[in-house]
Amino acid sequence: MKQSQFEQQHQAQWQAFSAQLAALHSGKASAEQARSFAADYRRLCQQLALAESRGYSSHLIEQLQQLAMAGHQQFYRHRSPIGGQLLGFVLAGFPRLVRAEWRFVLAGMLLFFGSLLGTGLLVYLNPELIYSIMASDQVAQMEQMYDPDARRLGRFGERDSGDDWLMFGFYIMNNIGIAFQTFASGLLLGLGSLFFLLFNGLTIGAVAGHLTRIGHGEPFWSFVIGHGSFELTAIALAGAAGLKLGWALLVPGRLRRGEALRLAAAKAVRLIGGVVVFLLLAAFVEAYWSSMTLVGPQVKYLVGAALWLLVLAYLLLAGRGAHAPD
Amino acid sequence: MFSSPPRHACPPLDTRYQVETPEGIDLQLRPAGLIPRALAFAIDLAIRGLLLGLGYLLLALLGQFGMGLASILTFLLTWWYMVLFEVLNQGRSPGKQMMGLRVIHDDGTPIGWAASLTRNLLRFVDILPFAYALGILSCLCHSSFKRLGDIAAGTLVVYRDQPPAAPQLADAAPLRAPFAMSLNEQRALLGFAERAGQLSAPRRQELAAILAEPLQVPAAEAEQRINGIARGLLGPT
Fold first, then answer.
1. What's the pTM?
2. CB within 8 A of A45, min separation 6: which ones?
3. CA angle, residues B86, B155, A271, in degrees to nearest 5
4. Which sequence ranges are marked TM in the entry (chain B) (predicted)?
5. Which of A22, B125, B192, B209 lies most in the core, judged by the most C-beta atoms within 10 Å?
């Protein structure tokens, strides 16, 4: 068949397909258009293949290819209700993923909490050590922040009450930023994640050890215990996701490095999704609960312990059923 | 006819990226290089700076509540601006939209949340150690111009297709070729006839003269002969 005949024969179909695409794209397609789309797309693909094998001119092939491309984009759209997906992920998908990646999670936890507890203990026993980890004015600032006589607690100790919003915003910005950095820098063969895990572990541990030793323990611990459950776990998980990236580059197994990285990143980014949820919770708790001085430290310790247990139980037990709750 | 080599048998001279779809056809994608991508990023950066400046000015009026919102705004613009635009606007942030680009998965499907989040979080590594050095190196070394984030996320920045303009064929009486032509030869002749408008007359003659001998005509008539054969291949219009 000559090309011009072929064009004349199918031109109307191509125009209709084009209109159908535009309608589907703007979400105004009639039921009939939506129903026939798959068949129309397949027919277009067949016509394109025919045109190519018959050696028709590149103008026609270009035109058909663009239609096929637009059809492909429409046909393979990943459109699923984000709300339901998110709920399923939070209720079951995330803890399952954490358990499936238990090696990296364990490594991240050991690095972070290990360095945190180790430094805390060392600083508690050797008072001078804090000054080789932090500058002296930073130490003084920390001491002032958690002074037992202060009216409100936390990083914005001296400001007047009421504006928990300021803190909420700051915590979101700061903490999620840190988690993202910890994850992303894992691409540097895992070294970046290693650095951020150890660095944060060392700093937090040093502050905790120092404040406990000089007798500011109660305001400090009662402040951090609540949101620490979400926040510290989330940082360790972000580190685990970063380590997974680095490991895929170092030990790709039978895959090519690029492919191994792509597969690892697809899982790691889901971990990060859970980390974001954790950190949003942490920011909320930190801004609205941890800084409250209405309740005594005992209540805070109790609630804090309950939150730690909750996080632990969630990561270990949630989503063990056969079906995802939806 | 079925034994003829497929289109991609000869390695292409350009940077086209081929994806074979489940329907058995090859989609042709045109990956975008460093310069248009850098320009798109610069535009996005400027837009974000502007939004941030305006947001700070307005929110400063609200006191500390406003400062909290400003922090959240900064966070959203830093980490989520690209992700939201790419997923909700068919792979086009405003900068990419202006430069005629879009992001897609490297299997040709539209970009989703996970891939977009991955490529934009790993931007943090691409900008290391300064001024996007790693990203630029990776982009220049990769055959389809991927930066590290693109490699990890399995995404590709491509040009958006512009509808092709209808070609103007020179007038000529339809002719039959003096010998049976392979598909590639057919395509070459048609390509020459369709692109005639973009070439200067001496260049057309020079190109056509290459075929003078196989077509058994004097070099001066080769162009006319090729146009005639192309007409003959296309059929009556």
1. 0.84
2. A68, A71, B21, B23, B24, B25
3. 80
4. 38-59, 65-88
5. B125
Is residue A219 within 8 A of residue A275, CB to CB? The reply is no
Closest CA to A163 of B59, B67, B71, B70: B67
| Residue that the structure tokens 């510290």 belong to | A232
Q: What's the CA angle centered on A305, arms A299 and A310, to 5 degrees?
A: 125
Contact A45, B21 (CB under 8 A): yes
Instruction: Choose among A21, A18, A45, A73: nearest CA to B104.
Output: A73
Tokens of B108: 């040709």
Please give the helix or strand (H or E) that residue B156 lies within, else none. strand B155-159
DSSP state of B225: H
The reply to whether residue A65 touches residue B112, judged by beta carbons under 8 angstroms, is no
Rounded distance between C-alpha atoms, residue A29 and residue A27, angstroms: 6
Residue B102 carries which DSSP code?
E
Q: How far apart are CA A203 and CA B57, in angstroms?
A: 35
* Residue type (1 letter), A98: V
ipTM of the complex: 0.84
Residues of chain A with C-beta less than 8 angstroms from the C-beta of B67:
163, 165-166, 169
CA distance A224 to A230: 11
Pair A236, A112: CB distance under 8 Å: yes
**What is the rounded CA–CA span in Å between residue A172 and residue A230?**
13
Domain ranges of chain A: 3-75, 83-317
Helix (H) or strand (E) holding B84: helix B81-88
Helical packing angle, A136-145 and A191-213, nearest 10°: 60
Nearest to A105 by CA among A5, A225, A236: A236
Q: Give me the amino acid identity at B200.
A: S
In order along its 237 residues, chain B shows pLDDT tens digits of 344 444 445 555 778 888 888 888 888 889 999 999 999 999 999 999 999 999 888 888 877 777 878 888 888 898 889 999 998 888 899 999 999 999 999 888 899 888 999 999 999 889 888 888 999 999 999 888 999 999 999 999 999 888 777 777 777 788 887 788 888 888 888 888 888 888 888 998 888 888 888 888 888 888 888 888 888 888 776
Chain A residues within an 8 Å CB radius of B108: 69, 72-73, 76
Q: Are A216 and A140 in contact (CB under 8 A)?
A: no
d(CA B82, nearest CA chain A) in Å: 15
Sole residue written with tokens 């018959």: A54
CA quadruple B205, B208, B209, B212: dihedral, nearest 10 = -140
Which of A70, A180, A261 has the CB atom closest to B151's CB atom?
Answer: A261
**Residues 6+ away with beta carbon under 8 Å from A240:** A101, A104, A105, A107, A108, A109, A271
Please give the Cα distance from A20 to A17 (Å, whole number): 5
